[in-house]
Design brief:
CATH superfamily: P-loop containing nucleotide triphosphate hydrolases
Shape: globular
Largest sheet: 4 strands, parallel
Order of helices and strands: EHEHEHHEH
Distance between the termini: 5 Å
Number of helices: 5
Number of strands: 4
Length: 116
């Protein structure tokens, strides 16, 4: 991977974005958590960070509740997915985090980045 690639991380609440960003930064990789799930502007991820690579972390509604004990409804979760649809369509990598540990998510992303 080229050293100075700017990596953007998006996904629904409790997908593991902050944990992944911390793991990447600890390895000297320029990574940014983009809070696209809270924006009504479909391409806000581009305006906020304009990353060289975009990584989408996916999580099911059920897993999000287990991870963070969120007090949200399925409709609120679906709204986040709607807000993230543009980013997901443009993602360079999509990782389903439901059955992965944070270490496994990081390893998968690092493997991807080695081939960029």
């Amino acid at each position: 991977m080229r050293e100075q690639l700017k990596i953007g991380i998006v996904g629904p609440c409790a997908a593991g974005k902050s944990t992944l960003v911390a793991g990447l930064k600890a390895r000297g990789i320029l990574a940014h958590h983009i809070a696209q799930e809270h924006s009504y502007v479909p391409a806000m991820w581009r305006k906020i960070t304009n990353p060289d690579l975009l990584i989408y972390l996916d999580v099911s509604y059920e897993s999000s509740l287990r991870r963070r004990h969120l007090d949200w409804t399925p409709a609120e979760y679906e709204e986040q997915l709607r807000r993230l649809a543009h980013a997901r369509q443009h993602a360079d990598l999509i990782v389903d985090t439901d059955h992965l540990t944070p270490t496994e998510v990081l390893a998968e992303v690092l493997r991807f980045l080695e081939n960029v």
